[in-house]
Amino acid sequence: MRHEIAVKIQELKNRIGHISDCRLRYGIVATASGSSNITGSTTPDHVDHRLGAFFVQEAQLVGIDLPRKKLINLLMHDEQHLRVIIVLGMARLGKTTLAKRVYEDPQIVGGYFYCHAWTNVPQPFNLNVLL
């Protein structure tokens, strides 16, 4: 039993090391948002309506299959190694939900990309700080 726990701990350490390497390689800087209280936890300054994308049930999604397939095709079948794909639309039409479904797709998660990360972009944002 102890050996199994030790193996799991080592696997977690390896995963953390890999994530840290990716973070450094791609210049991702971890920052805390919100204000700190006495206990050290953070509380958001406002509620981000895009967080709803994390809680939408698959059965509630209508008309997302074709756009999801198109985005996956753009990501996987192009010779360019670095690219930016912009998803535009009016507020609350499902852009974040669509992007999250593409990000979670088994083709994407299943190893097509060496490293991937999901980040929430605050509104409004500073492009220089974000990059």
Automatic annotation (TrEMBL):
Where in the numbering of this chain does the NB-ARC domain appear? Answer: 69-126
**Recorded GO MF terms:** ADP binding
Q: Which residues form the signal peptide?
A: none
The domain of life is Eukaryota
**Classification via Pfam families:** NB-ARC
SUPFAM superfamilies recorded: P-loop containing nucleoside triphosphate hydrolases
Name of the molecule in the record: NB-ARC domain-containing protein
Q: What is the organism field in this record?
A: Dendrobium chrysotoxum
Q: What is the lineage of its organism?
A: Eukaryota, Viridiplantae, Streptophyta, Embryophyta, Tracheophyta
